Automatic annotation (TrEMBL):
This is Phenylalanine--tRNA ligase alpha subunit. Tetramer of two alpha and two beta subunits. InterPro entries: aa-tRNA-synth_II, aa-tRNA-synth_II/BPL/LPL, Phe-tRNA-synth_IIc_asu, Phe-tRNA_ligase_II_N, Phe_tRNA_ligase_alpha1_bac, Phenylalanyl-tRNA_Synthase, tRNA-bd_arm. It comes from Alkaliphilus pronyensis. Belongs to the class-II aminoacyl-tRNA synthetase family. Phe-tRNA synthetase alpha subunit type 1 subfamily. The gene is pheS. It catalyses: tRNA(Phe) + L-phenylalanine + ATP = L-phenylalanyl-tRNA(Phe) + AMP + diphosphate + H(+). One of its GO terms (biological process) is phenylalanyl-tRNA aminoacylation.
Length: 332
């Protein structure tokens, strides 16, 4: 029994095989265990003799098992180390690094251009009051933009701002002229989404108030801005318009980036895209903020950042900017 046990132990290559051999001889129903269990039926004279031999055999098998166990463990460890060796010369895994959203990139660029012209960046709340969004901006009580079908109301007095012009008032209440600020931020309108309209979009407000500010300053500022942002070849045109908070007012279009003329999807073939509204700050608005319109004058503008970026990067649908499709975002 000892010889056959040892031969099986010697043959075992894996821990599993060794365990099988142990169970076969020393397990509960093992061959040696059976012998020890059968001792009860022996005569009192035979018992110590057989017992002694059986114990010696058990000790010898256990010693062999222990030796084999260490041997196999060593080999298995070697095997494991071999299979798990790290090839430090293998090329590493490429981690995907996120980047700024095209809107954020565009916003950073816009800020840089205006900061370069001496503007300060200020921010205002997205949830604001009817006073800052309409009343203080000289908006008549019956102005259609006040309607629920255009503006998102939270209560009768509180709304999601529909333009960044709210920041004009908040700024003029706090600062005294000379004022030269821009304010980028989110706006909300109850507009049906299409290729150029989104219920949430971005505007960049600009406001300059000082003594002797003229329409010429406004035109010059916007011209410098557009040429920086779109390139020196870009033209702008002013169209007369009407805003309650500016007088006179205008809308400004830019010639389409790269695709002026026929066939430009962003400009719908006209070759021009509407960029912003602007004008000279209405005297009532200055007065509402405690600034004397007899002494000071100013200009203001509000541009749609999403549309600026669409024009610059030839994006033909504003919704792409908010869907966060990684295949789209990776292109910027
Ligand atoms: C205004 O919001 C005025 N507050 C702008 C202004 C500021 C005028 C200061 C004078 C002085 P308007 O409603 O035209 O104006 O919007 C300005 C720009 O916001 C538009 O030219 C357009 O580029 C953008 N815009 C408006 N609605 C949306 C919309 N639903 N989705 C995307 N862009 C929009």
């Amino acid at each position: 029994l000892e010889a056959s046990a040892k031969s099986e132990i010697d043959k075992a290559i894996t821990s599993d095989e060794l365990e099988k051999a142990r169970v076969k001889y020393l397990g509960k129903k093992g061959e040696l265990t059976e012998v020890l269990r059968g001792m009860g039926s022996l005569s009192p004279e035979e018992r110590p003799i057989v017992g002694k031999v059986a114990n010696e055999v058990r000790a010898s098998i256990e010693a062999s098992l222990q030796a084999a166990k260490e041997n196999i463990k060593g080999k298995e460890l070697q095997q494991k180390l071999k299979s798990e060796t790290i090839d430090v010369t293998m090329p590493g895994k490429q981690f995907k690094i996120g980047k700024k959203h095209p809107l954020t990139q565009g916003m950073d660029e816009l800020k840089d251009i205006f900061i370069g012209m001496g503007f300060k960046v200020v921010e205002g709340p997205e949830v604001d009051t009817v006073y800052y969004n309409f009343d203080a901006l000289n908006s008549p009580k019956n102005h259609p933009s006040r309607d629920m079908s255009d503006t998102f109301y939270i209560t009768e007095d509180i709304l999601l701002r529909c333009h960044t012009s709210t920041v004009q008032i908040r700024t003029m209440e706090k600062l005294k002229p000379p004022i030269r600020i821009i304010s980028p931020g989110r706006c909300f309108r109850n507009d049906t989404p299409d290729a150029t309209h989104s219920p949430m979009f971005y505007q960049l407000e600009g406001l300059v108030v000082d003594k002797g500010i003229t329409l010429g300053d406004l035109k010059g500022t916007l011209e410098v801005f557009v040429k920086h942002f779109f390139g020196g070849h870009t033209k702008i045109k002013f169209r007369p318009h009407n805003f309650p908070f500016t007088e006179p007012s205008a809308e400004v279009d830019a010639s389409c980036f790269k695709c002026s003329g026929e066939g430009c999807s962003v400009c719908k073939g006209s070759g021009w895209i509407e960029l912003l509204g602007c004008g000279m700050v209405h005297p009532n608005v200055l007065s509402n903020c405690g600034i004397d319109p007899e002494v000071y004058s100013g200009f203001a503008f509000g541009m749609g950042i999403d549309r600026l970026i669409m024009n610059k990067y030839e994006i033909d649908d504003i919704r792409l900017l908010f869907e966060n499709d990684i295949r789209f975002l990776n292109q910027f």
